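Researcher: Go.
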Amino acid sequence: FGIFLALSPVSAIISFCIFLLTVYLFNYISLGSIAGACFMPVILALMDKPAAFIVIALLTASLILIAHSENIIRLVAGKERRWRN
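Model: Structure:
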């Protein structure tokens, strides 16, 4: 997030808002992180940012998906722990 805050502050803030909205609606921090990361390349593309920024965002989103693979399995199975009960 810090990298994108430096590269494109508006995109980072939009991505953070997506994170917050996802957590608010679905009550899962991991899902919010995944949503924010996966929307970042889309946001950057829509804002006509350099291709290098978009590639970095795609790589970052891929790493976040890999890091959250166990969370994704639990989300699909309905066993992921909610942020609030």
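Model: The two ends are 27 Å apart (CA to CA).
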